[in-house]
Amino acid sequence: MSWALLQLIARRLATAAVLLVVVAAGTFALIHAAPGGPFSADRAVSAEVETALAAQYRLDQPPLLQFASYLGNALRGEFGPSFKYPGREVSELIAAGLPATLELALYALLLALVVGISVGALAASRPGTLRDRLPMGAALVGICLPAFVLGPLLVLVFGVYNEWLPVSGWGELAGDKLLPTVTLAAGYAAYIARLTRAGLREQLRQPYIVTARAKGLGGAAVILKHALRGALLPVVAYLGPACAGLIAGSFVVETIFQIPGIGRFYIQAAFNRDYTLILGLTLFFATLITLFNLLADLLALWLDPRQREAL
Amino acid sequence: MSLLAVDNLTVRLADREVVRGLSLRVESGQTLAIIGESGSGKSVSLLALLGLLDASAAAVVSAERADYNGSVALLGQPQARRRLLGTQIGLVSQEPMSALNPFQTIGAQISEHYRGPLPARQRAADLLEEVGIRAASSRLDDYPHQFSGGMRQRVLIAMALVNDPQLLICDEPTTALDVTVQAQLLALLKRLASDRKLAVILVSHDLAVVAAAADHVVVMRHGEQVDGGPPAQLFRQPGHPYTAQLLAALPQPRSGHPPAAGRALIAAEQLQVMRGSGRQRKLVVDRASLTVGRGEIVGLVGESGSGKSTLGRALLGLLPTSAGSLQFDGQPLLAGQLTGAQRAALQLVFQDPLASLNPRQTVAATLAEPIRLHGGWRAAALAAQVAALADQVELPTALLTRLPSQLSGGQRQRVAIGRALACRPQFLVADEAVSALDLSIQAEILQLLQRLVSDHQLALLFISHDLAVVRSIADRVAVMEAGRIVEQNSAEQLWQAPQHPYTKRLLAATLSI
């Protein structure tokens, strides 16, 4: 690792830290501006109990002080107790939901990459033919079709009409991970396929492809050995936000298939005004997004020697 | 028996016949040159023979005969033809800057298709050594962008030679190369032809290169062969008016004495310019002193990387200078603090008009923008202004509604010059403004520039690596080497009695017919 690379990483991490504080402040302001509070939906309680609750969770202090003490604790890795899951820490809840969410995201990412890149490459190798138009048309549908439509549709076809696959759950019945993975991956696979195709078409027009073909290489070798690397740069750039999206955006899929991931908590926390849980989860996702973007940039550096030079 | 025998080759691209009835013979140990202007079908015919045209071009290729070594029918046996590629036939394609894969080390690219007994790296290093790259084995792991244009061209040649081919096809191998590098490359090709009994096909639009390197020349125009013969004979007694026309378009040394230049309009004194940032920051222009007067054309020559363009941009106030003084019309010129009038008075014309024109703006819009910016003309006056401008650069008004992609190279460069003239400049920098153009177009643009300079009393700095062109247009010439101006003199004096060793070397490497 070169010095310039370390500098880049250090710079990016420093920016990320500032960004996280801004995100925390924004979220804090928004949730406190939203009507209602964590305990307002509960049965009416006596004034003393309410005061006691507020004191216990420091809600009686001025907002700025609350935020400062929250940040201080967060720096030490303490995200506080949940307001709505009594006796449980926010970090505990995240840890409980994380394995399922991560597993789902990982499967979906792998599926999206494998399907997207191979379909994109096949389409690019015969532009304008049925082999190009059919999958690209399907990809367009895949991008347009939201998970909350595709998911129930898949459930209907494969789970209800045909009873081939379980309709919900995660790791309880054989094959129950298949439908959620496909539902989550579909949009990303479609997008990656289109990016790969466009990138490959662009690279295949470059003069260095003629050089490669003049060496006597066949069509597949030209694509795999020469064109694909450059074609994947846009895919890699998309991968950073995509990874974060896969993890954070799995709420819908987790809800459809009743998967015990983090997404569930997030939605409930928002409805319940579970201040600490919302803040903790938002910060957690913000961290993931910046991290994955950094990883994607490092991957692009590894792929493209010219970018390394420009460091 | 000829190594390559082609009779009556015809190539159709998208229902347009781009090559018609071309016949070629290539013998071992000989160099065949194909010349002609861009779009005449030189490269297309060779790529079509080798099956290297892009599949999406939907090319239809036919020939009465296209035999390699009397054994392989190039058009009839695509499988056998592909086996020849990279083994028997090596191709050095155009555009050294983009013909190498930017993501692979050059060592890997050279030896990718090597079939011989040596270790791949050793073979690659040997070849690089042979084409004249110093410390070759230490450069195997470098990427293309770490090499200059000339070096990349050599890498491409090494790559084409890796399996000891019998036929080497070089498509414009010396375009955009400095004269000294060009001379070295041509010598290398000659040596290879005689040492290895290599047959070479040289595609070029540079007559001087062809005269120096070829045994036989084919002249192409509009997809057809119009003339041919050994260069000595062909260039002395052209058999076809088109060949004569090409020869007449060669830049001629300027005759007559330049007019005495008036007061210096732009004057640089001991100018220093740094570029890059951090550790890569380096001095690109080193204590350069240069003046250009009204109505004067000053040529700036030197090899690529010598700092010509940087000096040109600094003189326009586009780059901050780190030392020295710069004056325009008696007033100090400071980058970043130019007045609107100064900005309008200092204009630039680039090498590649297609890249420097906005592809989505029509010619009229391109010409109108600077007028509006600097003049604030009303709409009616604007249209008249644009028409007058087009007239000045001899651009038919019918072209005003077109986009740059719908123009020829010469027309595009006229638009670029028109745009520069739009705000009535006083000092114009033409940075390799004719280098990408065919000979006849180049001659027209040079004439246009000369006329504009005398009509408007412009001061023109003409930057070029092509010495013959500079000699044909410049009153005075400055020679740049590694950021310094090593010699400055009137064009006539410089060519007759060069003083600095670098100037002498540069002039000696220049080819002529």
Notes on the structure:
The complex is a heterodimer of chains A (311) and B (513). Chain A is mostly helical. Chain A has 2 domains: 3-74; 98-272, Orthogonal Bundle (MetI-like fold), CATH 1.10.3720. In chain A, 76% of the residues lie in helices and 0% in strands. Chain A has helices at residues 3-33, 47-56, 63-75, 90-125, 130-144, 147-161, 178-204, 207-214, 219-248, 251-256, 262-272, 275-303, 305-309. Chain A starts with a helix and ends with a helix. The model of chain A has no long low-confidence stretch (mean pLDDT 86). With 513 residues, chain B is of the alpha/beta class. Chain B folds into 2 domains: 28-39 and 86-248, Rossmann fold (3-Layer(aba) Sandwich); 264-509, Rossmann fold, CATH 3.40.50.300. Helix content of chain B is 35%, strand content 25%. Chain B has 19 helices and 21 strands. Chain B has helices at residues 42-50, 78-84, 106-111, 120-130, 149-160, 179-196, 207-213, 231-236, 241-248, 308-315, 340-345, 353-356, 363-375, 379-392, 409-421, 439-456, 467-473, 491-496, 501-509; strands at residues 4-13, 16-26, 31-35, 59-62, 65-68, 72-73, 89-92, 167-171, 199-204, 216-221, 224-229, 264-275, 282-293, 297-301, 323-328, 331-332, 346-349, 427-431, 459-463, 476-481, 484-490. In chain B, a hairpin with a 2-residue loop joins β10 (216-221) and β11 (224-229). The longest helix of chain B has 18 residues, at 179-196. Chain B is globular. The mean pLDDT of chain B is 87. The interface between A and B is medium-sized, with 25 and 32 residues.
